Amino acid sequence: MISYDSISLRTWSKLGQRGAFAAVSSFEIARQVPSSVIVTADLGFLSGLDRFKAKFPDRFFNVGIAEQNMVGVSAGLAQEGMTVFATTYATFVTMRSCEQVRHFLGYMRSNVKIVGSGAGLVMGYSGNTHYTFEDIAMMRVIPNIVVLSPADAAETVKATIAAANYSGPVYIRLTGGLNVPMVYKEDYDFAIGKNVLLKPDGDVAIFATGTVAYNALQAAMELARRGVQARVVNVHTIKPLDVESVLRESRACRLLVSVEEHSRLGGLGGALAEVLAGCGSRAPLLRLGISDQYHHAGDHNYLLGLNGLLPEQIAQSVFAAYSQLD
Amino acid sequence: MATAVSVPELQYLANKLRRTSLLMARRVGRTGSHLGSGLSSVEIFATLYGAVLRLNPANGNDDTRDRLILSRGHSVLSYYAALCEVGFLSPDDLLQFEVNGSFLHGHATRDLERGVEFSGGSLGLGITFAVGVALAAKVRGQSQRVYVIIGDGECDEGVVWEALMCASHYKLDNLTVIVDNNKLQYDGHPEEVMSLGDLASKLLAFGLHVVEVDGHDVGALLNAFEISINSRPKAIIAHTIKGKGVSFMEGRKEWHHSILSEDQYEQAILEQPPLPDLMDQERLK
Questions:
Q1: Is B2 an interface residue toward A (CB < 8 Å)?
Q2: Does residue B267 fall inside a structural domain?
Q3: N or C end of chain A: smaller count of CB under 10 Å?
Q4: Phi, psi at residue A197, to the nearest 5°?
Q5: B132/A77 Cβ within 8 A
Q6: In angstroms, what CA-CA distances link B177 with A239, A308, B180?
Q7: What is the ipTM of this complex?
Q8: Tens of pLDDT along A231-268?
Q9: pTM here?
């Protein structure tokens, strides 16, 4: 049984999202779900899964550098009754294997949980082949797949365990590197499809997903110093979107904002726009995210800065939009 | 489960599957159907369903059943015909082939109650799935066997080779890969479209035990299936003829997916060996 005490949360944040999955969730899932196995495409060591492999040699399968086969083999295992976690870099599993994901998870509804790590811009100097800012759009358009995007390491633990106990296909998008900031400093309730209000009150609603949710929180504090009160909502489940929460905030606020380490097209902002377009909301939606282009490589913060996703930049963008409201 | 086990009985079953395939093709009319591969696979299905597979049509979820995964998803004519022969589908079900909203699509959709293990249609995917299914049986120490049918054209897909490499790595001797080697893909002969070279050597190099047989000789197929191999998967290269059994279709790429007119149907049926009991089949008209 794992404990969500403050020491654990601090330790996990040092491991980052991928590390927390490997060091914490994988073992807890193995305990809770006896039929669970992990499949990887030559990313076991990097993902920190060697300890898991040593402890559960018959529940860990490496298919080599073959992401398409990884998804197919995972589906075969899953349709035989196993709960399968398939993990590698988000970029390769969602894009090289996109059709496999559609076929085996979407169409055939195989009980496979894809853990895509290194999503967003965290791969830094590795460059655009390793960045992943198209994945939310691609995964959420496929029927039957739950799309999760945890905000910190603790939420990664909760999301992956929830995925293990959910019967059906899930895509779990992991962002950030080591030492991801803590959005949660104490235990809280996590449920797939239920947004978490991180900061209440205010006539601006910032919807954030992934590790940049921390930046959104920081931005809200900066906005408060400038006299603008913003609430912050963590959308850890992109699909199924918590429509009720979105509508509630949209009715209560004058300005809506989305913050994501993903393209401004088709991600969280896109999903919100789809909901808001049909509901009569008069609050404008400011979509903050990665611009629609491939940048030169740089470190994570540099890239976040290029895309206006650092806390001060988010605050400035929101402040500017807020100032223009009638 | 079919009880035919002798070679003449299997041949009889094959003849029946071929007739049923033609009837279904005729019935869909102007929609057309995948006749070429439907007919090249007839003896493979007859041997598998007639003598090899241990199935339980009364319970499609029976965990001990052998798994047949049709990776090359478009040979449904003879596949559905075979599922009907062993009792997973009824003759009435076959009437639903390619009817709007029916479950008998042009590529089969996974439905264990109807004996379908895999949703086919996109080439290269079924064999990766089969590797996972065989791996699951291996790690659980279960004795069911896994069979997967792929086409020679399908071998153009790179993921096929990822799957074969993986099957050998995990020593999946419960897996048999059947290549319906009909030597004709959509655009023509593989030597013109994309040469497969020496397929047997390639499979050998990927660690499989390879057997080559005449894919229209049910006796030879049966012998190939009965070979038991330890510690590595088995490949059966079944040399077949696309459109087999109908003179004007054999070896002609135009019949990959095509419309069978009334006249053509009559001619095709005239070429079939006579069968004494065509009662069920007449209903398909």
A1: no
A2: yes
A3: C
A4: -80, 105
A5: yes
A6: 38, 53, 10
A7: 0.94
A8: 999 999 999 999 999 999 999 999 999 999 999 999 99
A9: 0.95
